[in-house]
Amino acid sequence: MTQILLQVDFTHQGPFGEEMAQQLAGLAASINQEPGVIWKIWTENAAEQLGGGIYLFESEASAQAYLTMHTARLTAMGITGIRGCLFSVNTALSAINHADFASK
C-alpha cells in the first residue's frame, strides 16, 4: 500500500503557538475522523506569517478528497495563498531515517 504525504501551507496572520493550540483543538480532533488520515503535523511560522500542516494518508484518493475539502474550508475562513502538494512516500528510504509509517 502506497501512503501519500500531503503538504499544505497558506498565509496566516495568527494566532500562533499556545493561543492557536487552544483555539483550534476542536478542529485538530475532528481531523482524526477524516477518511484516510493517519496523522498530521501542524506547522507555523509567525515571522513569515504562514500556517499549514503535513499529513499522512492511506491513499491518494483520500488525500485529494481532504485537500479539496480543506481548501474550501480555508477559503471560507478568508485564508488566501493556499498551496497543497501530494507526494508518494518512499518508505524504504524513509525507514533508514527513522520514519514511522504505521497505520492508525
TrEMBL record:
InterPro entries: Dimeric_a/b-barrel, YdhR
A GO MF label: monooxygenase activity
Gene3D superfamilies: 3.30.70.100
Protein's UniProt keywords contain Oxidoreductase: yes
Pfam families membership: ydhR
Organism superkingdom: Bacteria
Keywords: Monooxygenase, Oxidoreductase
Transmembrane parts of this sequence: none
NCBIfam families, per database record: PRK11118.1
PANTHER family found in the cross-reference section: MONOOXYGENASE YDHR-RELATED, PTHR39169
Protein name: Monooxygenase
Lineage: Bacteria, Pseudomonadati, Pseudomonadota, Gammaproteobacteria, Vibrionales
